Amino acid sequence: MPSIGITGGIACGKSIVTNFLAQTMKTTPFNADQEIAFLLDHNPEVAKEIRAHFGNASYDNQSKANRAFLRSQIIADPKAKQTLEEILHPRLREKWHPQAMAALDNPHLLFLAEIPLLYEKNLSNCFDRIIVVAASEHIQLQRLTHNRHLPHSIALQLLNLQMPLTEKIARADYVFWNDGSEETLKQQCRVFLQANQF
Predict the structure, then answer these.
(1) How would you classify residue 82: left for phi > 0, otherwise alpha for psi between -120 and 50, otherwise beta?
(2) Could you give the CA distance from residue 101 to residue 125 in angstroms, rounded to a whole number?
(3) What sections of the chain are H helices per DSSP?
(4) pTM for the full model?
(5) 62-90 residue pLDDT tens
(6) Rounded distance, CA 132 to CA 13, Å?
(7) Which of 130, 153, 188, 193 has the most CB atoms at less than 10 Å from its CB?
């Protein structure tokens, strides 16, 4: 069974695909966003480094990361984005990389990982197959503003921080298009599973 990487754009439905495939294939996936949330709120070394770079405003009085503040920093300054990634991503890699390497080309192991910055961090050689979950930009903006309650200007800036979806699509082994319903996206997952006979 292969090592599968799942990536794509923000608000495109990556987690829906990851969770559906994980349940069907009976495996526990690695979710980079969930791991980042844990590192931000529960890793004292991470908190110390972030405070050192971004100041005490980066955490609230309950020692939880101030996500709105950190988001404003990385939108305003590309160097801030790079600094935050340098703090978090080596720790992420320590979690998922050994599992991916063990499963790579191994017929008896399966590894499923949702990594939004898979292509940005040049990680494609760590996976046998890569799924990109994509959607139209206006749909992404709609989901960010309506579902996540972000101002339109912030949502647009977040989209502009990412590698263009067209580039990710061009590099993918499989593309799931998610402009429609969750059930339509899940049906694409079923087709993928049937075609690959996991």
Answers:
(1) alpha
(2) 10
(3) 14-25, 32-42, 44-54, 67-76, 78-103, 137-146, 152-160, 165-171, 182-196
(4) 0.91
(5) 999 999 999 999 999 999 999 999 999 99
(6) 10
(7) 130
